[in-house]
Write a structure and sequence with these properties.
heterodimer, A: alpha+beta, six-stranded mixed barrel, about 50% helix, about 15% strand, B: alpha+beta, two-stranded antiparallel ribbon
Chain lengths: ~900, ~110
Amino acid sequence: MKKQPPKWADRFLYWFCRPEYLEEIAGDLYEMYTMKSVEKGQSYADKTYFFDVMKFFRWSNFKRMGTMNTSFNTGLLAHNFKITLRVFKKNMLYTGINLAGLVVGLTAFVFLLVYYLHENSYDNQFADGEHIYRIDVHANKDGSYAESAKSPVPLVATLNGTIPQAVNYTRALPYSGLVSNEIGTKYREDQFVFVDQQFLEMFPPKLIQGTLNTALDAPFQIVLTEKKAKQYFGSENPIGKTIAYESEDAQYDFTVMAVVEDISTHSHLNIDFMATFSSLDRIIPWYKNWFYPNVYSYVQLDEQANSKEVEMASQEILEKNGFIHYVKQKPQLFFQPVQEIHLSSNKTGEWKPNNTQIDLGFFLSLGFIILLIAVINYINLTTAESQRRSKEIGIKKAMGSAKIQLIKQFFIESFLMINLAMLLTVVMVFFLWRTITFELMGIDLILINYLTWSNMGMFIVGGWILSVLVGIYPAFITIRYSAIDVIKNNLSKYMGKGYQRKVLVVTQFSISMCLIIGTVLLIKQYDFLQNKELGYQKDFRLAINLSDDYSKQNFTNLRDQLLQLPFVENAAVSNTLMGSPDGFHEFPISISDKPDLVDLELHTLGVGENYLDTYGIEILLGRNFDPTIQSDELGAFIVNEAAAKLLGWGTNAVGKDMSLTLYTGKAELREGKVIGLAKDFHYQSLYEQIKPLVIYINKHIYYTDFLNIQLNPKGSIAEKISEIEKVFTEFNPKKPMEISFVEDELERIYQRELASSKIISLFTLLSILIASLGVFGLASYSSKRRIKEIGIRKVLGASANHITVLLTKEYFYMIVLSCLIAWPLVYFVATEWLSNFAYATQFGIENYLIGLLILTLIAVVSSMKQTIWSVKSNPVEHLRDE
Amino acid sequence: MKGTFLGELEELVLLTAAALKAEAYGVAIVAEIKKTTGREMNIGAIHTVLRRLEDKGFLSSVMGGATAERGGRRKRIYTLTHAGSSTLDYSYRVRTMLYERINPSFS
């Protein structure tokens, strides 16, 4: 007998090939097979047969669905629409749940996408933005690496004109002051920024009034943002009028040259006022020093320039021509592309708190995850629902409906559903825009800007693709039913064990589990940062900002008057607030027993005598500053444990010689002894490890910026504050009192954690909501599927408890499975995330169990209705067969 | 009219089918092209081209008799239609005319 070609390849051919072509193709293949086996032998022919089959595996040979008539049948389409509307109407609950899930999912997705796009658009509005770099200074100091967004003022002057590829330079120095329109109220303005004329060329704002070309070419001229022009001048034309700016005990008048649109919303810049840079020569004459970086320097390169080369050239210029003391610290210039600042730069002295790629990626994936959950839901509910419509499908099939027509029906349903959901999503987005973007995400966006044709088009096309994706699965499940089985009500053979649905639900559960535990983690870490033992007391501590020379010079009067008040327990000046990222200036330190320690710079804190008492900071060894000991004022230091360790003193720190060079308009050398060893306290945020700190007494006006007050906790805070204000007004009637709670200031540092945890909690809640809708759908499906089984069990005497356990058990297995999937994932991500913090919360097994508990509750509650229905229903109704 | 032009492969297949007369079907055409031009054709592609030529009206087909070497299956025999033969004539004329302009001694 003649050998036959491989059966499996033939089977494949029969599966895909159109029946009307099958005979000739199979014939040709067989003929070729015979020819090959004669010419080259049997085994060769067997081996190549499948490849020959594959040559016919092309679109034109594929089986077609249903009839070959693909003409557009409007009558049928109208019929499909009518049926769809009837289905929606007949089953309001199902439609409602389905729609709610989709709308919530889509809305969440849209908002997270808007957030993502916004964060990615930073600094794209500047025409030359690609070629502008901020000159950052990185330095490797005493084993710790420091990166600063700010640089010293003379840096740009040193570099200017030395490098041909650098087309333009500019500087920006924010210097807070009290601003008024000369007659009205004074407000403290922190974003009063001194910039060069070139700034307006490199970061061109949109002009509203006035001229920009010469706006900042002479001292004491100013450009206002629209918002501030309104605030200070109302509807008047501000051009040519004056703005009074009060800082460092003097008042200066600035002439308004132009009003511009706000340039800060999509930018790392944070600017309300732009004043001529050279005005600083009179306002703060000491600003041109190399001692501490206080200015943002920018450089614009020409289009062909390689930024790394220019960076290296600049470094050389700095080392050759820079200030000798500064160069000794070995600063490394780093050209930071401005368009990347918002998403990648996180240095000391950033203008605004920046985001990170990772966080942003996380938010975007959260959006996709929520959408995925909503889609899974839709699929689950629709397939469950299609069981009910099996009779409709059976009859249609019996009447000669082609498969393609049934599929069309399902696609039209999902298409209508998604379109309805999209419409409602637009409405939701419209109403929730302000609440979500501004209040929750903290970004000030105008909805109109996002209603572009391309965005709308993308939204609609995206929705349509989605409707095809969600329509496919239910459609293909349903058309498998054979008409006879359907009409005989013999569907159980198609239901199987419902594995597909279970897989979908386990996916949902796993995602929900991840999100729940992730939210717990965020909340815990935030809570931990809020409540961590800081080493000092922050409650009932206030700080008055001493903003002018009069207050600074005479602060002792104010302090003594405040101490008269019965509820003020302690008061002391300091040069910075607790938690300040850059207020603890680094100054050169030398110690006599280690002469080889050169170029050592440590964090310092200049205070009044009572400071440590005011904050309840513990002295471990030695003594505190003493106002009665004259020498303390110029020759006494208290170091923290970290400093004692770094200097190799350990517990023998007290009595050691130390000298400190600080800056008070000139370099000032202080020589003295260490008199005390303070317990480590978290003077910076908890993102930082505690670093070595030297505390000394300083009453120079540069260092008396804040008067710290400790209040008695008893009684009303508001009354105390109004009494303090009375004292202040008597002391300095010309100034408004500016006071802040230390606790609030600290909270501001963790603002970003708080904002993220708020956003994530909300969206987690939403996704859990959608997932529980899914469980509800699945419960209704599975209890119907097993209704005969339950009926028989009841007849045989099963109790209500027994039935409940039987139905709930299923979810329990799925939840356990999702734990197995989600827990390792969460563990990995959580460990990774917590390692970003210097001080992180313990995240133990109990938090994973919280996730399990919440998920179990959700599953039980959302399947409750169906379970109760199954338990209560009369078995006769379901077992009777006609 | 769009759709009545012949691609290079289409023309080759059409000519071969016409030349084979009553024996024009998939495998035979592949073998014939191999013999005359040395080109190794993909059998699947030939089927598609034949069907397309039939759609254009250049070929017509009938199912032929079953043979043993095809496992008892029939073959689809293609024959040249009138439209097909006039298209071939037309393309032959165009080519000859153009070729004579290059090389007048031809023919």
